[in-house]
């Protein structure tokens, strides 16, 4: 190997492993094990060899008596505190599982988080949707920041372990809750909230945010019960300004958008064309009147192509965590959840951001859309829109979804 090739290879390896950052700090006369270095948000395989400061802690539902009742019960209409942390640090991992006879509890139970004593939450979402699967369903899927673990009888009972690895910094404290808005008791809420305590956090550390939205149904721009409005007619629709797009995120301040999951119940197909996509993503940054980031189709934003021919397909940065019927002559019917995480390519904004996507090309379709957006930003954040009431969060019954699908298909 030539000297130049060897030098290039070593440089790339050092950048990947994190050694380059340590070497640069040493060259500036700084120790890579100084107190400020571990307080940065960076973590992962590339930094595991570096010495760290701080103290690992956990807020959990463990039985303080030493017996095995390692859970808390949550009565209907009440809220359980699952973390109440003082001082500075980072939440590194959240694990939750729930046992209840409540149907569709994953949409009835609300996860919230508050940073540094704020009065409005920075996280507000039905618990199932937050962890990456919509429609109050469970699914055995895995991505880099989120996953669910289930299968066999637990899947039949709609139970799952749910995990989150998004880093969540706080300077003065963190408060996390789970509210039971159902009609039945949560017999067992198990949780582990793993976090680090530090004297301080990085001065540029933005706060983590997540917010759930739903529009059911979206307002279609064409009457798809008219058999003349087939693929050719809908494909000629023009949408230049994104005015009627489904809104995934709208935020003000400085930060970066790091992804979303999008759940669709396909109840309004184009006649003889079963695909629910073709809608472009459009992202407006810092108040621009027309989007500077425009995509080429729903499956393209979620990093697939030609629809979702493989159906269920969980991958680290993008994938399908829940797939409806996907075989035979009729494909893409029913309930789906897809996700895209901008881990390597966060979308930055300095004043505001609006993330949208068409519901079908030119917004022609009237489907059930819901989503969770994930982003980091400076505080204070603008208050979230009022969370929908329980009855407006529940999924469409499968029989009704099927009836509506065949009405226009």
Question: Please, could you describe this protein's structure?
Answer:
This protein is of the alpha+beta class and 409 residues long. It folds into three domains: 3-47, no CATH class; 56-198, Protein of unknown function DUF2961 (Jelly Rolls, Sandwich); 207-408, Protein of unknown function DUF2961 (Jelly Rolls). Helix content is 14%, strand content 35%. A hairpin with a 7-residue loop joins strand 15 and strand 16 (293-294). Residues 1-41 have low confidence and may be disordered.
SSE diagram, text form:
Layout: H1 3-17, H2 19-27, E1 55-60, E2 72-74, E3 79-86, E4 88-100, H3 105-108, E5 109-115, E6 123-126, H4 127-130, E7 146-149, H5 152-156, E8 161-164, E9 168-170, E10 173-180, E11 186-198, E12 207-215, H6 231-235, E13 246-252, E14 255-266, E15 281-285, E16 293-294, H7 298-301, E17 313-314, E18 318-322, E19 334-341, E20 347-349, E21 352-357, E22 368-377, H8 398-408
Parallel strand pairs: 6-12
Antiparallel strand pairs: 1-11, 2-11, 3-10, 4-8, 4-9, 4-11, 5-6, 5-10, 7-8, 12-22, 13-21, 14-19, 14-20, 14-22, 15-16, 15-21, 17-18, 18-19
């Amino acid at each position: 190997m030539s000297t130049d090739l060897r030098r290039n290879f070593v440089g790339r390896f050092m950048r990947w492993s994190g050694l380059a950052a340590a070497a640069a700090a040493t060259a500036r006369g700084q120790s890579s094990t100084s107190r400020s270095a571990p307080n940065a948000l960076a973590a992962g395989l590339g930094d595991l060899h570096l010495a760290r400061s701080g103290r690992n802690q956990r807020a959990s539902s463990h039985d303080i008596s030493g017996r095995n009742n390692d859970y808390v019960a949550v009565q209907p209409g009440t809220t359980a505190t699952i973390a109440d942390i003082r001082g500075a640090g980072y939440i590194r991992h959240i694990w939750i599982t729930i046992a209840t006879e409540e149907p569709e509890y994953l949409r009835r139970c609300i996860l919230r988080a508050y940073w540094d004593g704020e009065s409005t939450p920075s996280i507000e979402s039905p618990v199932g949707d937050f962890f990456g699967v919509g429609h109050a369903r469970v699914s055995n899927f895995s991505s880099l920041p989120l996953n669910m673990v289930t299968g066999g009888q637990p899947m039949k009972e709609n139970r799952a372990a749910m995990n989150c690895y998004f880093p969540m910094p706080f300077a003065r404290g963190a408060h996390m809750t789970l509210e039971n808005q159902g009609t039945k008791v949560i017999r067992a809420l198990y949780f582990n909230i793993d976090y680090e305590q530090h004297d301080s956090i990085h001065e540029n550390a933005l706060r983590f945010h997540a917010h759930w939205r739903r529009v059911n149904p979206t307002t279609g721009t064409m009457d798809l019960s008219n058999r003349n409005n087939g693929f050719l007619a809908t494909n000629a629709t023009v949408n230049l300004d994104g005015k009627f797009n489904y809104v995934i995120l709208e935020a003000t301040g400085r930060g970066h958008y790091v992804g979303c999951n999008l759940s669709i119940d396909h109840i309004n197909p184009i006649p003889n064309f079963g695909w629910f996509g073709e809608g472009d993503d459009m992202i407006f940054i810092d108040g621009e009147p027309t989007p500077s980031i425009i995509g080429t189709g729903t499956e393209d934003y979620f990093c697939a192509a030609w629809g979702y021919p493989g159906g269920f397909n969980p991958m680290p940065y993008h994938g399908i965590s829940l797939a409806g019927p996907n075989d035979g002559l009729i494909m893409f019917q029913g309930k789906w959840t897809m996700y895209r995480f901008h881990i390597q390519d966060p979308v930055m904004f300095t004043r505001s951001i609006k993330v949208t996507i068409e519901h079908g090309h030119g917004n022609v379709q009237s489907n059930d859309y819901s989503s969770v957006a994930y982003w980091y930003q400076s505080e204070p954040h603008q208050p979230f829109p009022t969370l929908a009431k329980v009855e407006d969060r529940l999924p469409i019954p499968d029989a009704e979804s099927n009836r509506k699908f065949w009405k226009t298909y």
